[in-house]
Design brief:
The chain is α/β, with parallel strands linked by helices. The protein has 7 helices and 7 strands, in the order βαβαβαβαβαβααβ. Strands 3-2-1-4-5-6-7 form a 7-stranded parallel β-sheet, sandwiched between helices.
Amino acid sequence: MPSKTPVALVTGAAHRLGAQTARTLHARGWNLVVHYRSREEQANSLIEQMNRQRPDSACALQADLSQTPALKRLASGAVEHWGRLDALVNNASVFFPTPTAEATEDDWDTILNTNLRAPFFLLQACLTELRRNRGSVVNLIDIYSERPIDDHPLYCASKAGLAALTRSWAKDLAPEVRVNGVSPGAILWPEGEAEMDPSAQRAILDKTPMARTGNPDDIAETIAFLICDAPFITGQIIAVDGGRSLNM
């Protein structure tokens, strides 16, 4: 018998903004499906914390979002665990520079498949259950979807496409399913290959009216608001950027 507790699937939820989003929804009484690709230890640590707070309230599922069969398995696994699905947060994303003269087909496939193709086909696989529960979808966009960052044409294109999907879905899936987006500004600095040097970070903050980075809570609380507290909001993309987009 399906659980009476609403269930959310958050992709890329083992760390950073995805993990904070999962914690925030859990604190509001939701059950969580924590998706991860390679961060198994972090995902298991997160769900253990949640299950200590409230038994049988979180599970972790692994999937490579660039593979279509994995998307279907993730969706079915999320629904089967508690017998329902009420919200999908498309948070998982890849970010690295791809100058036009140097970008490869592999770069194209990696970025577009993860950032744009996966959200589309994952929602498609979840759609029956989201419609059944008059659910909600929140996509993590980026302020760079409208005002591109240098040497990241593939990333910017992927996020612009996700913004277009957000608005298209809001029209096509209403009234059963609401679809919105959140566009972070400077919240957490990129890691790994895309890591910024301190001077680049300072340049961004100098153009941010709030003159500081945001906090993961700023994103997580906005997502929770759109899912839990905004039954008449759909098709909107909220910039949570400290005003940075005013100066881009």
